[in-house]
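FORM 7B: Structural annotation worksheet

SECTION A. Query
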Amino acid sequence: MAKSRLTLQTQVLRRLGDTAQSIWTGAEIDVYLQEGYDLLTAATGILWDQRYLNDVANQALYDLPDDLWEMERVTWDDRRLAPATINELMAADGLYETTTGTVEAYALEGDGLRKLRKYRIPTANASSTAIAVTGTWGAPRDLTSMDPTVVGTWGIARAVPGW
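SECTION B. Predicted structure
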């Protein structure tokens, strides 16, 4: 059953033995509840999702969205790509920045912040027309100003309803 912020706050104050709020204020409890929520979402990866970047022929670099926090898996043309460092790409192919062919790997370094590089550059779009990025998307919400109806994939609540 969903609990409101006020219900959680009341339960915490009861456990602290301070229902009169003579030591702890409701605002202080809210700060600790928010910190706990932030830690829980980071530790559990509950904001996990899969999103897509439009695949473009003859394009190697893609800007990653600002709300991507952690990347777990990247696929191209429904095949999982191996992560690679720029040093690994250089050792395998000195012309990795311009080599064309079937995409085999991706790199997240060497081209600036929040950039994904496909290694080999396809001369045609993938049949699936998208690069699938699976990972943690979005920052934990501010529990005092969020939409209480937000529910994630498979019915996993992405926030405490009622806040």
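SECTION C. Observations
Residues 26-44 form the longest helix (19 residues). The chain has two domains: 5-46+147-155, 48-136.

SECTION D. Sign-off
Analyst initials: ____
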